[in-house]
Structure formats: structure tokens, C-alpha cells
## 1
Amino acid sequence: MADKHSVSATESSCVPNPCFYGGVCEDNGDGGYTCTCPAGREGEKCEISAACSGNPCNHGNCTEDPNGYYCACEPGWTGTRCETALFCASQPCQHGGVCIDGANGFYCFCEQGWTGKQCETGAACSGNPCHHGNCTEDPNGYYCACEPGWTGTRCETALFCASQPCQHGGVCIDGANGFYCFCEQGWTGKQCETDIDECKDNPCGLNQQCINHPGNFTCNCTDGYDGTPCNDVDECAANPCQVNEDCINTVGSYTCTCKTGFRPNGDNCEDIDECSFLGRCPDHSNCINTIGSYRCDCHTGFSGPTCTEITTTPPPSTASSTTTTVSGSTVTVTPGTTTLNTFTGSVTTTTAAATTTTTTSGTTATTTTGTTETTTTTQPTPDIGWINGQSVRQNSNGWKVDATMDEKISNASAHQGQQCWYYKSGRNTGSQPGPGDKTPFSPGLSVKVGRSDGTYTAEADSFYVSFWFKMAKDYSTKFGDGTKMLVVAGDPNGTFASSNHLEIYFPSRYRAKVSIQTKESYPSYTECAQSKNCGDNFGGIPNVIADNLDPTTWHHVEMTLRSRPQDYMDEWFYVIDGDTANQKQEGAFYKTQQYDEGRYLYVNRLSFVDITSDAYVSAKKGIYFDDISYKAYNSSNTNVVLKEYSTSFEPVEN
């Protein structure tokens, strides 16, 4: 059936015939026309071939022809229906290469000397000679355009320094497998990132403090030093201490200490009432406190340096006085006077009748006219007759010490007088190292101190000790020597240290000071006594009772034993350099019968024991001791001294 298409027209629209390809035109009478197309044609004017229906040209335009249709392909496509891509249309092959289209792409047949997908690579770039770059052919062969961070003819060398990895001014040097930083002085590390602490090698001089800074250091004088070089400042020259204080210049500083007879009270020093401390004065005397000191006044009827000379007073009379000399002191007998005697070197007695006082060696006899009574008492005499350079055992006065101990009388120093005792080193060896019968023991008193209740047999319950000490080490280098010694109570046999533990220690270090410590009942004196269980660590608790003591001066130690008729209750009191305000109370240290050792050790002498560590034996210099005294008495009557011993290690007086 012919396809009819109508169009409008104004005249006989069929003249001339508007229908193509033999289409028949019919005038519609309304100015339009209709084309009746032959078979195979369509469209308003029969201009469209039925063969182009459905757009058979994939990438082109369909045009009817007598044989059906043909496709006018878009650029880059070919084929009857424009279905085949022409990849070579863009001429991708370089340097004269021949392009061959393929089903899915193209192929280049390169001219001689070229290679690559598009013949873009010269033969010299074959095999990719540029490790980290792009190869480009040139008349001389090729050259490599390297990627960032690489260099070399073939881009084979890394430029590790390109990122400037070296810090703080360090210089970077590239290597085969990395970089190296040459650091500025004061820095270290792979990238010079670490500051060198120059102070760890102590680059500064004596009395200087090293202060590390980033990349360098400075040396400043330590506190208490000034100048170049840094010298010790004598701070005491400016009188920084208060009234009743002594200024002691120390290395790099100073200390203010209360004068003898005074004690700290807040920021001030107050007078010490020495009379409040047990055992200050002998029997038959009253203790009178004075500002910064004290004195002992003999009771009426007693005289002499220790108030032991007895004066008998008859009924009043008008006899004249008699004056005589007693051991270098003047004795004045004056009718009708009453005078208490003090320790001033003179002795004054009171009589009402003619009295004559005479003295023979160590004995004072006083006879009053009209009586027949004569009283004689022995005056204790300090142990004298010591010879410089000899061992204390050579005096045959009761000191007990083995010849292996390094000790002697010395005139190198003295607390007062001319000589002292120098104990350098020496200890027991063999089965009982340390304390033992070979170490020095002072003379034993004829009474023993301890408990007297039950089966205990002590004659006194109290033991008072006083001694002075000074370190023997030359302190000019400001170093201690490691000396460590015990000064403790000794048993009557002179075999064992007994009852307490007082340790003098001078550490082996720069600017060392002397400390004094005891060792306490475990876990404490009070708990041990209350629980009656001192534990496995009995005696293992150190307690510092004085520290920062000047090693160049003499120091005073007082210690008092008070034995009590109760298990675990023996106690010691310690006073250092007269500081009665800070008196230390401790328990007994060494094991007694109540401490599961099966024995009780009484006390009547002193034991001196070198306990210095073996590491410091060659360097230690030991200790000077002087003015040693001790006495036994009962706490119920402190004025009655049962026995006492004293020595200042002085030679025989001329």
C-alpha cells in the first residue's frame, strides 16, 4: 500500500510535482497535497528510504540509494555501517611508524632505531636505562630527566640531603645508601637532633657548677664561692649570726651554732640549764646554773676540786685562821665564816676554832684543836703519765687492746692540754670479726652496772659517759675517708661490746660531714618494751641523732644508761655537743637474756670498735679521742658516785 503524506499549499500544489522518487501528488483542494510514495519510500515527499529506518549506521548518517542505503561515517570510523574504529586516524605512531588499526586498538610498525607503543622511544632508551626518571633520545644517545630527590646519569643516586634532614646547623653529606650529618659542637644524633650534656664530664673547675644549655654550657661559681678561680667566701666576716651564736665558715657556706651553754629556741639561742641534766656535779655539791655555763658549789663541810675533802667544824672559838696549799690550791681556814666552795681552783673551809689543814699525795686530813677526830678521804685522780707515741696498753693502767690495733698516744691534736688518743684502725679477725676482745677497751670499774633485781647482781643501775672526738682526716681536700667507729659500753671482762650502739661515721665523699647514729630496738624501743617481741630485725633500725657535724672541730658526746628492773626496759640517753634540749632516748641494742641470747651483759667500761668498710681501709685516718670519763651510780641517789674513771691522756706534770 502506497504511503500517503499530506501537506498544505495555496495553489495547485502538485505543479511541479513535489513528491520524490516517483511519488504521486494529489491536490487536496485546500491548498495542500498528499504524496503517495512508491514501495520502499516514505516521508512527506517520499524522501526517506525504508532501508535507513532504525538508523543502521552506528557512527554515521544513513542515506538511501538505488541499492538500499549507504552510511556516511563520522571521522575515525569505517565499515559498511560505520562500526569499525579507525584508531590510526589520529596518527599515533611517531617517527615514521606505520599505524595498523586493530579490533581494539592500533599497532605501530616503527622505523629502524625506534621502539615503543607509539615509536616514541629511541633505541638508546630501550630497556629503561633511567632508574628513577624519564629517558629521552638525543643525537648523542639519550638523557634522563630524573625524578625529584634523585641524581646521576641514570637517576640512580638518591639525593637524601634534598630534604635538609640535618638540624641545628649540621652539614648533610649524601651517601650511597643514605646521608651523614656533620654536627655543630654541642649536638649529636643521626640528624644532630640531640643536645650533648657537657656537664656529665665535669668540665668545670673546683667549686664551680656546670649549667648545660642547648648546644653549649657555662660554669658558674657554686653558692658560697666567688671570683676567678672560684674561692670560698668567708661569710662569717659579715657577722651573719645572732647574739649567743658562733659563726662557723664551711666550704661554700656557713653555719650558725649556739655557743656553748646555749640551745636553739626558734630563731634565737637560749641559755641551757645544765643543772637539769643528770650527773653534772659530783657528790656533796649543788649545781648552780649561770648564763652560758654552770658551777658546782660544795656543800658545807666539803671542799676540794671534787668536793670530797671533808672538813670537821668544832664548837665556836676565836682561833686564828690557817692557810695552806692543797695540790696547787689555797686552803683558807677563817674563824666565824661560812663559804660554799666552787670549782675555781681554790678551796675555802669554815672553822670556829684553830684549825690546821694539811695535804699529802691524794689525801686531805683536817684536825681541829680540842678534838681527836681525824677524817681522811681519797680524792679521785685523773689518769696521767701518758707518753706520746706509745700504745695505751703500755701504761699498764687497765686499758686492754691487742698489739694488732693501730692506735697510740698523739700530740698531733688535743681537745685541751697537750695530748690525745689516736685510734686509726684495727678489728677482730677470725671467728668473731668486728667487736671483740682484741679491740680497745678502757679500764673497767670495780662495780658493774645493770639490773640488780631477782637473780641479777649489778651494784649500780646507771652509767654516765663523757668523751670528746675529732676526725683525724686532713679535710683540705674536702673529702671524707669512710671512717666508721663504735663507741659503746663494754662488758666487765673486756670481751664484748654490750648494751648500746653509738656509731660515728665520716662518709667517703666530697664535702662530707660527720654523723652520729644509734641502732634501735625493733620496731622501736617503746613497742619492743610493750610487746616484749622485738622481731627478727632487732637492732637493725638506724637512728641519726646528730649530723652535719664539722669534721675539723672537736665534738662532745654524753651518754647515760638507766637499767630498769623490768624486761626490755633498759634505756640510754644521748646528748651531743651539750644540746640537752634535744636529748635522745633509745633502748638497749645488744641482745640480753630478754632478747633470746641466753645471757645478760653488764657494763663497767667503754669499748671502741673500728667497723669501717673494707673498701675504705687504705684511705681511712681514724679518730682522735680526748677527755674520756665515766662513772657508776644509782638513780635513787645520783649524788653518790660509786666508782669513776677519767683521763685526758696527759703526760706526768713537771
## 2
Amino acid sequence: MYSVMLVEGKKLESESIKKWANWKDPNFQICYEAADGLDALNYYTNVMQPDVIITEIQMPGMSGFELIKEIHKINAGQKFIIVSSEANFLYAKQAMKLGVKDYLIKNAITDEDLYIALCEVLKLVNGQNKSHLNVSVESLAASETLQMILSEEVPFDLINQYLYSLGVDISDSVYFIMSFAVENIGTLKSAYVERLLNDLSFFIGPSQDIACYMWQNNFAYLGFVKSDLSQFSIMKREYKVSNAILKAVENVLGSVRVTIGVSQITDKIEDVSRKYWEAEKARNYSIFLGGVRTLYYYENPCTLSGADALHIQMKGIENAINNRDIDEICRMINNIYKNNKDSFRKYLHLKYASSLLINLFMDYCKSNSIPYRYIFNNGFLSKRTDEQNETMDRICDSLCVCFKLLVNGMKAKTKYSKFVRNIVEYICENYNNHISLNSIAEHFKYNKTYVANYFKRETRETVNMYIRRFRIEKSKILLKTTDLGIDDIMYLVGFNSRQNFYMEFKKSAGVSPVKFREVSKIQEDAV
């Protein structure tokens, strides 16, 4: 019997995990249930070191990642499985760097996923882990054969036979295709092509994968993975191949730009040419921000796929903005994010969606002369999202709030006179400073009674009421979309008294700031 420590801050979810696997079948037994990372570390240090640790990432006191780092200082060989609600590509990437054996998503996990993960770890504990990719077929003959297959020069019914002749056994495997291209250089000479393929084979290590040169600095890679592996393990394999490609190209050609397209996984070898087309289509989009050079293809059978559908959705959001329809804007943004958050591969799609929405938001702010300070804490908008600290749900909610304030700002532009609009803009730009009716009247060089009456006649509230309401709405956004402390938020939005802040907040929201954040988190988890 092998021991397992379960580290999960929520009792209900801990009970759910215990029901997801037949613990007697893989010969594992839960020896301890830790309430958080600190509790787990204390047990590990003072009581016993279990064979396997299953942990969540987000926990009070000490996160799952911090726990893994601390335990690896004690025992570098400790085996971990992450079972988390965080479907964030960067979390998965961090897990790989820390040597986590599997990464399972709570809202997508099945009994089979956890069973397979435990069995794979059982092999590691016993020292029985053997690579399923143990046949090296990186040769000129294999490359030429793959080129013929992808060029559809081999009949579909003979593809299996061709691969078998190369020593490739795909009976218990699924596969993916990568298409990668070296950009902005002349056509590669054959000697460089051969060296690049050889280096790629070296960096990948022993496997039955095949790479080949296709045309004009375009290459293809056929990668195999065992059919019973989890989504996380497949992603790790794709990630490894992608890094090996970049490393091989840099080793042979120096610092040049490379783009990589990745197909969907399939077990139907007769679909190999279609999978190559998928990888090519993904690579040709080449539209993501920053240094992202690996693009994934996916297709939703209920909708148009990829960027084509996304651009249509953006047009719909534009129309809703022009119609000042806040509900429709939020519905469409939610449809983009919350219907796509369950897959690591769709992370890149959502990253691109974020860039389009941010650019759309910026364009409308500029065309309507709405200052960023009306919506953000600063007079500028950074296009870099701190993805380490953001979930897709939070990004989605934050964008909905931004567009809601944008539309309200557009409505105010047409609703109020220029004088009142100037006052509103001044409040938006200075709400986090010490401002009042007196300071606003002094700034615009008007009598404060005149300002007060003029403003109230159009807005139906006093200047100070408007300032307080605006500050409270900003605090709600920060409570929903950040992990900042309550006092930090209070000062950021311009309140200097905790008592006044709590009183005004409860008057507006009906609950305290702490309760508001708790309820918002519960609603987010429930979606």
C-alpha cells in the first residue's frame, strides 16, 4: 500500500477528490488530509513523507507551488500531482518546471484521469517508469516517408504499412502534427536542413517521432503519445517538442524567428494529411502578442473555428457598443471566455481575444475622448496582463466592467453639457486624490454654489455624492479582480477613513467589502 497526502483548502472539494478514484485499486491510501500548504509541510517534516502528494495551487498561508519548492528542498524526488481549479497555461508551465507528474483541472477531471495519474506515479515510485517512445527512427528514409505521406503521395490505406516498415508502432498511441517555419532568411541549403533535423532528434531524445523538410524552410513533425495519458501529459509532450524545435533552430541558424503550428490530437492515422493542414492553418495565423511562437488549432463543432469566429464576435461587440447595449456586450464577452476556459490549448485563443478586446476598448476610448483614468487607477492602459495572477474568469469580469464604464462614459458624453462632462472627467482623473466640491470649483475657477447647482440639475446628485459613488464602484472592481488588501483598495480609490469607506460601501452594496469579495468569489467559482 502506498501513502498519499491530500492538500486541499476546501473541505467539500477534498471530499470530491476522494470520490474520484478507487483508492484500493491502484494500492494507494490517503494517510493525511492537510487544510493548507503550511499544514502539509508541518506533517511532511514532523510526521511522515508520503509516496505521493496531491495538492491544490491556491491556498491560504502557503500556495501549492510554494509547498512543492519547500518539500523539494527536503526530498528532491517527492512525487506530486496537482488537482486545481486553475485552468491557466502559465500555472501548468510552472508545474512542469517544478517536476509535477500531472496537472488535472477540477471542472474537467474524470475518474479515469485521476486513476491514470495515480498509476503512472505508482510506476515512478516503483522505479518502473519506462518511456513509451523507445524506438529511434530519425533517418533520411523516415523523413522522406513522412514527406510523402503529408504530400498525399501515399494511399490512405497504406499509411500504417509505411510507418510499420520504419519500426513505428502506433497501436496504443495517438498523435499530433507540428508545422514549423524558419522566417526572414533565404532558402536553407540541404546541409543545414539535415543538421537541423539531426539536432532536433538529439534534443527530443529516443522516440519514434519523425520530422521532415517540406518546402521553402517549412518543416513538419509527427509526434506520438500514449493514448491513455492525461491532457496535461499530452501538453507536456507538445511543450517539450516545441522547445526542442526552437533550440535546434537556434543551435543551427542562430537567432531567427520561428513559428510553430500544432494540430489536434487524434488516433486516426488516415487523417494525418488533415492534421498537417490544421497545423499549417494554426501557424499561418501568426497573430499573437509578445514572443508567443507556438499556435494551436482547435475546432468547435458548434461554431466557426479559431480566429475567423472571433473576428465575427468582435463585430457583434462593436455593434453592441454602438447601440449602448451593456447586457449584450457582457453576454458576448462571457460567451468568448467562459465557454472556452476548460482547455489549455484554448488559452492562446483567449489570449488573442484579450488583445482584440483591449485594442477595441482603446479605440473607443480615444474616439470618444474618454480618459483611461475614468476606468483604471492610472492615466494609461498597459497591454501586458499579469497572467500569473489572473484567471480567465477574472479577466472576463474585468473586461465586462471596463466596457460597462466605457458605454456609461459614452452615454454621459451625449447626456451632459460640456461643463458637466468636464467636471466628470476631472473626477475620473483625480478620484484617488483629495478632491471635493471646493477643490473642483477652485480648479475650474467658478463659484462653488454655481458648480453645485449646475451639476445637480443635470446629474440629479451632488458633486460629493458622485465622487463617493464613483470611488465605491472602483473599489468593487478591485475587490473582484485583484487580491489587494481592503485597506490598500480603500486608499487606492481615495478614502482616508476606514469607517467612512465601510459605511459608504455597505450603503451601496448592502454588504461589507469583505463579504462582497467572498460572494463574488463564490459566484466566480460557480460559473
## 3
Amino acid sequence: MNVSIVVCTYTLDMYEHFREAADSVLAQTHDDVELVVVVDGTPEVYERVVDDYGDRDDAVIACNDENMGLLVSRNRGAEIASGDVVAFIDDDAIADEEWVERLVRAYEEKDAIAAGGKMTPEWIAGKPSFLPEEFYWLIGVTHRGFADGPGEVRNTFGSNISFRADVFAELGGFDVDIGGRKGDKNLQGGETELCARMRERYGRGVWYDPEAEVAHKVFEYRTEFRWLVDRAFWQGYSKRAMESMLTESTDEETNFAGRLLTEFVPSRLYSLLIEPSKRGLLKLIALMIFTSLVGAGYLYGTTRYSGTTVHVESETDEPTYQVLWLRPSRGDNISVRRQRIAEELATHGVEVDICDVTGTDVIGATRKAVVGDYDAIFGNVRMGLYIGYPLARLLRKPFVGTVSDPISDINDLPQPLFNLLRRYEWFVLAHADACSFTYQATYEEARRRGIKGRKLPNAVNYDQFADPDPDAVECARKLLEKDSVDLNKPVAIYVGGLTESTYKMSTIVTAAEQRLDWEFVFVGEGEQREMVAEAAREHPNVHYLGAFEYDLMPGFLAHADIGFCFKDAEQPLKVMEYGAAGVATIAQPGNLQTRLNDDEAVFIEPDPDVIAETLANLAANPVERERLAHNLQRHAENVSWKAVGEEFYEILEEVVA
């Protein structure tokens, strides 16, 4: 079987690399190989090719009259080739000596109509430590998850693919408008479109042999993060274009995306937890960023290839600014700080879209970032900060980092992993256009690091809690009574995220077993939801009501006597809400004592016996309970979201200007 191998080249700068590619073709163990060289409109390159290979009987050389692009050149090479099979390799690649032999075996033994193999990396300037193997396709190398072994695939890489000559001719060759001069210059993937047409016509794909190897030279510029970011975005864009042209063209990408989210990301995360390393963390972060950017490119492609425009919803007719605020995914009724600030910004005509970014939520957030006409991107710790910064830089938007929780919140992670995340977080904050810090300790550390930012504490809509809407109070009463809460007994309440490491849910539940004279009410959502719900089923004085709209929280607190907050933080949001509602608070000693004194809250260790004893004392001394509630309420009266919102508006004006 005669095999013609087409190599296209066009610049003298690549000539020595071209010679290596051509020589590797001529050094094949298969003895019936034809080298076909197409020079794309560069006479001086053509002259050198003729000098080096013109006298060979197994070489055919042609030159385009002008630069026509890779796909036009490949089609011309196939037209002048004489082989039964036409194969393609790039001028920056080197074929293994048994490459053609393996391809021929696929045609003879598998009756293939097209065959290809594995692309391996040849690192010219060293392998980048951050690049995950799942995204090697960005550099033209076969990636993890491409195929489990030999078998039929939709297509292989354009630098390691071949076709029966008659099949290639019947298909009309490559569509020259894919990345060609007449089409969209940002489109990539001519072999994808061709092989999708082949599958539609013949019902067959490309036979993949992982032992048919071609090494692809990975030059230094291809290992730079900025280049890879750009590449990822436009690859996603191209995939959307392919999908619009041929509906079956993205089946394999869909399958790969599924494995990425359900297999590869969890696998890398598990490995990182078992054996923390800087390399592992960088690869995991890069994996998430590249996934987001491919999705962003795909969604951007919908604006051109679907004929539709995505509009961002606005609360005002003519907003002065539009902001995308990225935050961790914690549930619709958790993380209310952003909502309160957004409400205050709205009074200045600022439209704020608040988007979750954890896990698959990042896709929707990226879509908004790319398609929406935003003036700035805000990113809140942790994932909002980690994803928002590179996304803002890619889109050339101002970035504001907001730190509402201290880094110590994740210090239960393995120490090496915690240290790596801490370093990345400070790197982002140091390079952001502006920063805000909720906690004094974090703000002071930022100043020590030379990072400028504003100290903007948690606050409360005082009137909303101090004088709650009667409808909210009545609605909460009905919900409490429906769950058999005895409102004639004192009520201890917890409102917020149900997490063990931060808020000690199991400790409160254990204390409830000792204080049957108290009703324990939990309102919120989180990882400990099932544990709390199970306790509610087992103990008559424990009640888990679920998660509700924020506007209903003042109604629940109106029926409470004590509020719990066992988060060792300087100013947890819920403490101010408890205070404004006139609810005495039991809190954990530590950072909160820098803001409140013993006349404003009861500070005890989060121990079930201590909690039970404290509740007994407060039940027996209602005057003391009222005194604590009154003092905390006076403190809460002095912190407002209006003041915080004003400063955020100033930040926005500064970074946009």
C-alpha cells in the first residue's frame, strides 16, 4: 500500500523544523512512502525545499502562488499525491519510524477508511508545572481521557491523521473556510469538521492506534499561561461553530466534559488531599480555569453562531455601572452580605449580578462574564476570588477582591494545601485593582504585605430586624407551630449555614438533649442538614425548619430568646442580626471579643455541658437575658449596610475610572 504524506510549510524560521519532519517521513520502516511538500506562497522556502529534496523520486514539491492557509495547502497536497492513502503531518512534528507501518496495519487489518495515532509532546523549553494532562489538546498533544485504547474515534489530531485517497476526494477535502482566509480567523479544527462529514456520509470514524506516534514540538510560547488562556477560549468558540455546522461534531467533547467533571476533577482533588503538593494544586486550579474558559468561548460563540444575543437582566432602566460579583456556592439563602451591599449599590443605579462559581456553577458565571457588558468583576473568597481574577484579566475588566471570611476558615485542610491556597490568595489580592476586608486581622495583614484595601465590616439592616414586618412574624409563627415548636417555652435559635467545622452543629444538638425545657430551632442549609434533620426526628425539642427567604429571618428571630454563633470570627454577620432583633447571643470566645464585651454577649466554649448550663442560667435570670439583648441591640444600631454600600460605590468609581 502506497502512502503519501503531506507536509505544509511557509516560513524560513521553521525550515530546520520542517526538515526534521520531512526526514522523519522518509525514514519510515514502511517501504512505500511518498513525501508531498506544499510551500504556502514563499518562493525562498520553495527554493530550499527543491535544493534539499528535489532530486528524490519519492518526493513531490509544489508551491502556492500566494499564502492561502493550511487547509488549502493540505487539499492541494492531496490532489498531487499518488498514494492509496494520504496522511498529514505538521512541519513542527516528528514521526516515529513505525508510524506509517501502524497506519497501514489499520487499513489492512481493520478495513479502516481513515486512521490516526497518538500525539506526544516534545518539550522544547521544558514542561510547564501547571498544565494538566487533561488539557494537553491545547498544545496539539493527545490528552488524558482521549481514548482508552485502540478503536474508532471521531477524529485524531490534524498532524497525525490519514484517509483513503478516494474517501478524501469524495468528501471534497478540508473545508477551507474553517480557519481559512474566507472564514472566521478564530475558527480551528478543520479535521473535526471533515471527520464529522465523513461520519455522516459513511457512518464511520477514524481508527485510532495509540502506538502510531508523532511527536509534536511544544515551543516556549505555547507553554505560557497567557497563550494557553487565549487558546482555551478560542477552542471553545470553535467547538460552538462546529456544532452549528454539524450537529454531531461535538459528541466527543460532551463525553469528555462529562468525564472531566465526574472523574478527572474529583480524582485530582482526592490526590491533592492525600498528597498535597504545589504542582498538584496548580494543575487543579488550571484545570478549573481552562474548563471555564473553554465554556466561555463556547458561550461567546453562541452570540455569532446561533443568531441570538444574551441580555443581562437589569433592575434599573439606565444603570450607571454593571458589576458581576462571583461568590462561592453556599445556597440561595446563605452569603447574604453580597445581596445587602448590592441593594445599597442599586440606590446609586448600579446593577449587580451575583453568581455562584463552585463546581459546575462556574459555567453559568463564566457565561455571564463573557456575554454580559460588565464594567467590573468582583470576586469573593474563596472560589469567587480564585476564578474571578484570571477571568477578569482575560476579559480586560477591573477586578475587585472581597475578603469576607479569613483564610483560617479553611485551615482544616492538609497543611501543604492550605499553605498553597493562602499563597495564591495573597497573590490575587496583591494584583487586584482594589480590595475590601471584612475582618481587622486580615486587613492588618494585607497592610503588612503592602496591599492597599478598605476595611468594610459586616453590618445589618437595623430597622428590618428591630421592627420586623408583621407579615414575616406571623408567617414565621405558623411555620414554627406547624413543626410543633412550643412557643410557651424559651426558644434557642441558629440561623445560617449548617456546617460542622465552622458553626459546631453537633455540639448544639447534643446540648439540646440536656435541655428539654428549651426549644432548639435550626434555619438554614449546608452540609450538616441531614444530621440536624435526623436529630429533629429523634428529639422532640429539636426542630429543623429548612431554608427560607432572607426577608423571613426577622420573623423567626422575633420568636427567639437566644441565638447561637460558635464561629471564631471577629464579626459574624448573624451576630449583628441577632442583636438588631433583640436576641441575646451565646458565642465562642476569641476574635469576636475584639468587637463585643461580656455585657453584649455570653462567651462560652462550644461544649454541650457548658451550653446546657448557660441556658439554664439564662432561663432562671430573664433580667440578665434582657440586659444582654439590649446592649447588643445598641451595638448593632451603629453598623449599617448603607455606609458599607457607599464605600463600595467609591471603590467601583475608582477602578472603572
## 4
Amino acid sequence: MSNKRLIIWGVDDYNVLGLFRQLGRDNEIIFMVFQGVRHCASLSKYCTKLVETPTLDDGLKYLLDNFKDETNKTVIINSNDLIAEFLDLHRDMLSRWFIVPGTSTPGLLKKMDDKATMTQFAKELGFDVPDSRECHWSSNIEDVTYPCLLKPTHQTLGHYNEFKFKICKDAKNLKRTLRFVRKESTFILQQYIPKESVALVYGCRTLNGKTHLAGVLEKDRFCDNGDGSHGVLVAEFPEYIRPDLIEKFMDKVDFYGLFSVEYLVYKGKAYFIEVNWRNDGTSHLFYQAGANLPQFWVNSSIGENIKHIPVKVASRSMFIDEIFDEENVKRGTISKEQWQKEREEATIFKYYDKDDIVPYEAVKKGKRRKLILDAIVAKNRLYLVYVLDKLGLKRK
């Protein structure tokens, strides 16, 4: 599909980097950078046109000012939750000139992106879900069972979330946490389930209403910031994951585009975590294992040939984050010898690409700085966000 313009709207990170590597060989890509250049995806050799759109409104203005061809629509792919909700809200208007991911009901995605709403919906469809309830700074927590898990229900534009998630071991810990959160923040308070692994299903629902699933990535080791750093990709679904429920979820919401579904796996049971209504940051891992759902979404959306595009991973493949997983050796999670053995066995990598090496080298060079910042944020994020709010400093 040469000389076809695509727009990738997202943050300058490994998610967009992966999209460049899947789509950059055969498409002309415009990268709309949200929240500033960060020297990751923007360093890719496939990044030939970059437009800075610091805010969502800046992005909308750029789209409306520069694209007027109703007969040759431009496909938009996004990689950020806030952008996904924004596009969904304006999907009807933009669909005149663009192929836009989202739902058939404008604004529905913001509701479905709320973790409390999403979790309840999944439970009603038949997913296994941890015991859950909404929680605010002033909620009654007398009957909470510990340990428990606390997560923001939603990402708020202009603010940093107080944390990605927080495990509270006792009532004292939970009370202290709630004392520092914003009064307007809403959380989902869940039963704590130990994490043996995290399973992720990557998929795409095309404009004809058919859901395609590339396979499963099961992550069994994690970086200091919580990202999965080692695992296996397989085409066949384990017994504890039901693809029919995923298809049912997509049909009920009537969502179109790229997505992923995450589960926490414990003792042979997969507990629903969330749906990500945008391209997943692991999409390029599935690509390296043989599937190219982003290109499938593009071609199917504009009526081009899709028969040659694989949508399922080919076979069992081992994944490793070749830069950050080694920190597990220092933590004593794995021996140096075993890590080296698994590194040699891996064929799927997070950053490395011999044909697009500059981003990998940049991330590797900045490893130490990132580890230090991640450690500081992980330990103090709740209090840092509290201080930023008191100072009136907002996230751009």
C-alpha cells in the first residue's frame, strides 16, 4: 500500500516506535506527537514527518486545517487513552475525512474507559473479575479485606494520576493513601490477587464488525516500573482465557479499531484487568512473532487487499526486554546465568531492530537515568503529585 498517508497520533514512546516498524516500510506516515518530543519513536528512520500537537485541541485543529479529501480518507491510529477518548467524542465529525477508531456512539469510550464501569461490564458478560467497588477519599473502608488493590478509575486530562496502582497491606496504609489523593479522584478498590503472570490479548475489530485476535502474550517477569519484561507469545488461547467473551465485549460496545485485553493469572484462573481502547505498546512484539494487525486495520479500512497480511502469531516465541529486564538479576529474581540463557533463547525484543537501530541505542544510553527517575517516582509519586496539585502545576 505504497504512497498511502497514515496518521499516528500518540506519545513519543515505544508504542509508536513499534507502529513505525510495522507500518513504515509501506506507508507514508505523519506522526502527530502528543505531550512533546521524548527522543524515542521520533528517532526512528521511519519517522519522516513529525508534527507537534501539545494538546488535544491542537491536534484537532491540525486535522481539520490540513485534510479535506473526502474521497481518499486518511487512516488514524492512536496509542494513548486520552487521545482515544477524544477521537471517539469527535468521530462523527472527523469521519468525513478520516478513518477514525472508536465507537458508534460519540463519547461512549470515555465511559467505557472508566475502570469501575469497565470491570462491572466485564463481570456482567461472564469474565472472572476480582471483588471490586468504587472508592473516594472519604469512603467508608471499615469492611475492607486486606491486602487490597487501589487503582485510579480514569486518567484525568491536565493532571498526573496519584499512582498507577497501589497495594495497601492494612487499614493504616489505605487511610494514609486516601488522605493524600484529590477529593475529586475516583478509584476502584479491589480484592488483591497475587500475580503469577499477566496475560495480554492483542486484537482488532474491523469496520465490518469482525474481531480478529493475534494471540496471547503471557508476561512472567517485570521491570521496576511494572512493565512486563519477559514472557512468551502463543497463537492458541489457554483454557482460562475465553476469546468469545472478548468478541462479545467488542460487539456490545460496538468498538472499531485496535485494542488489547489484560488479565492477571493466578492458579489457573485469569482475572480481568482492563481493556485498552487503542494500539497496545506490545503490538510490535506480536509483529515480530508473525502478526501485523495495524496494517490489517489500515488495509481493511480502505478496502485494500488483506489476504497477504497475517493476523495470528506464527508459533510459540520468547520475548525479553533486552535493556531493562536485566535489573531482575540485581534484584535476585533470576540468576545471571539463567538470564543470559533466556536472553539467547529470546527472538522477540522490545527496542532492538537491526534495521532501525538509533532508538535502541538512545534508550540504552538513557537507561541509568530512567531507572533512577522510575525509582524516585515509584517511591514518592503519591506525595509528588500531592505537592504539584498544591502548587497548581498541571500536566501539559
